[in-house]
Amino acid sequence: MTALKDKRAIITAGASGIGRVVTKKMIAAGAKVAVCDVDEDAVNSFAAENPDSTAVVCDVADPTKVPEAIETMLKGLGGGTDILFNNAGIAGPTAAIEDISPEEWGRTLDVNLTAQYLFIRGVMAGMKAQRSGVILNMSSAAGRLGMPMRTPYAAAKWAVIGLTQSLAMEVGKFGIRVNAILPGSVRGPRMERVMAARAKLTGRPLAEIEAEEVATMSLGRMIEPEEIADLAIFVSSDAGRSISGQSLGVCGNTEILR
């Protein structure tokens, strides 16, 4: 597969979770990649497995650290990038809004929204200069549906849609495409933690929460990380050259979030 042959890609949170799956598939598709991740062990593991790739430790929500991380990744890619996948995100608290602290609220928005701005800002001059580029912003099914007990997460993910659509209009004249990916419930450790937190909060059995999770999806199953990667590669490739300003769901048609 060479859909991304000779393309250069930056993936945030690219050494663990969904990001690592996306990164692995982008490499297989021919891309040269650079990743950052807050998990130092994951970064070291990724670097050992992918010695030709650049991997740095970075808290994407720290505006004092992001510029240096971007500089290192751009240098590793030869001075520029064709693709930015703003993948980093956190679940945030599962609680009634009055029980969410300002620190929890702020951290959830910082990682899920402000970090995307920081990375876009850091690569934009280069993309404009080369008059091309693809930006993928990770949103969620919670970016189009209400989600009780997860208000900071839903607020951030709705905001990502506004960021994406506005930026697509702003930079289209430079040949830069901007889209959002809206996953549903993706199989993996983070989703397991979210369901466990909901079970604890409501006092219901975990098995009941898990069954409820897929019952609200028309396809009736969890999303696999590889499906996110497949969409990211398609949209980033020349096959997706006319796709911009879109909110692209990979959620099995999630009908409601509870």
TrEMBL record:
Pfam families named in the record: adh_short_C2 (PF13561)
Keywords: Plasmid
Keyword Amino-acid biosynthesis assigned: no
Highest taxon of the lineage: Bacteria
Heme among keywords: no
Alphabetized CDD domains for the sequence: SDR_c
MF annotations from Gene Ontology: oxidoreductase activity, acting on the CH-OH group of donors, NAD or NADP as acceptor
Similarity-based family: Belongs to the short-chain dehydrogenases/reductases (SDR) family.
NCBIfam families, sorted: PRK12826.1-2
Name of the protein: 2,5-dichloro-2,5-cyclohexadiene-1,4-diol dehydrogenase
Species, as recorded: Mesorhizobium japonicum (strain LMG 29417 / CECT 9101 / MAFF 303099)
